[in-house]
Amino acid sequence: MNEEYLLDLYNFELPKQLIAQLPSQKRPESRLFYYERKTDKIYHLKFKDIINIFDEQFCIVLNNTKVENRKIECRKPTGGSVYILVTEYKDGVIKFIPYKKFNSKKLVLPNNIEIEIVDKKFETNEFVAKGNFYNQDIKEIINNFGLPPLPPYIKRKKDDERTKIDFERYQTIYAQKNGSIAAPTAGFHFDKDILQKLVEKKVEVLYITLHIGISTFKPIKTKDVREHKLIPEYAEVSSDVAEKINKVLKENKKVVAVGTSTIRTLEFLYTKYNKIVPYNGNVDIYIYPGYNFKIVSGIITNFHLPKSTNLLLVSAFVGREKLLELYKIAIEKKYRFYSYGDAMLIL
């Protein structure tokens, strides 16, 4: 096996204090680690400085999915509670991933609906439960009782005051279409002012949709990263956006994707159709080192977890050794990592 594909090579040590527990006070005040591939130069900036980097030669594409508050507190029949992440639901059936291990066969949802676990999907770590409820009942639970589905490394106690911040900040300001169980966190750094200034500088700002699913939570368990399987996620690209991106490419302008979900959507479509087409359907592209990028020439992203599919994707873009070198510098400079952390721009 080619050593480049060994999972252990995509590891790094991160001090716990650099795992961001809260977002920056203001979105564009996040720090920005800017790496320019052409010159091999690094710039340490604020995110708001991107307006000085981009001009009419750039097209920025963002993911306008909206994360749903699918973290639900359930009661165990024996007493006590357990938090679950609802991944899928329909009349009478609900799928979920528990935040902690539990042994109960039954759970009681916040509106006193009892569900009984009938199966476990080992590939995804999802539990399958049945009960006497309708699709609309689960929607109401999510709307009335749901909490932002923060990843486990962002710690929150029950009735934590910081949860008020999460309701606003664990969401992009341009989120429009419900459907994600995790936020496209690279977009957290944008506010209305930044977007407006980019438009004023004649940057083409466009939106696609990819609903982030359990692929985000699925760890790579194979020693050879190529053997990992991604679970498809649903995407939408309008005919207007497809037409504008193709025009940008014909004019030799640079496409900058905000977040790994946007990168995968654009690269999936271009790989399949040799251009961007209007699309409603699943995206299942898995990008790891050795992949040849076809459309994306710049990325805005956060700092990712070791041995994760997102880290592999960015490694494919900039090279594994270079990315780990950049991460080492970011750690030395005390950049904040993961969902609520600082931003990285690679051009």
Structural summary, described in words:
The protein has 7 helices and 17 strands. By secondary structure, the chain is of the alpha/beta class. It folds into 2 domains: 3-67 and 173-346, QueA-like, CATH 3.40.1780.10; 71-146, Beta Barrel (Thrombin, subunit H), CATH 2.40.10. A 9-stranded mixed sheet has the order 2-1-17-16-14-3-12-13-15. A 6-stranded antiparallel sheet has the order 5-6-7-10-9-8. Helix 6 (309-318) crosses helix 7. The two termini are 31 Å apart. The mean pLDDT is 96.
Name the descriptors.
single chain, 347 residues, alpha/beta, QueA-like, Thrombin, subunit H, 2 domains, 9-stranded mixed sheet, 6-stranded antiparallel sheet, 7 helices, 17 strands
Largest sheet: 9 strands, mixed
Structural class: alpha/beta
Q: Tell me the overall shape.
A: globular
The CATH topology label of the largest domain is QueA-like
Distance between the termini: 31 Å
Mind telling me the CATH class of the largest domain? Answer: Alpha Beta
Q: What amount of the residues lies in strands?
A: 25-35%
Low-confidence stretches: none
Structure in a nutshell:
The chain is an alpha/beta fold and 347 residues long.
Could you give the topology of this structure?
Layout: E1 31-36, E2 41-46, E3 58-63, E4 65-67, E5 71-75, E6 81-90, E7 93-98, E8 106-108, E9 114-121, E10 126-131, H1 135-145, H2 163-169, E11 177-180, H3 192-200, E12 204-210, E13 233-237, H4 239-250, E14 254-258, H5 260-273, E15 279-283, E16 296-302, H6 309-318, H7 320-332, E17 343-346
Parallel strand pairs: 1-17, 3-12, 3-14, 4-11, 14-16
Antiparallel strand pairs: 1-2, 5-6, 6-7, 7-10, 8-9, 9-10, 12-13, 13-15, 16-17
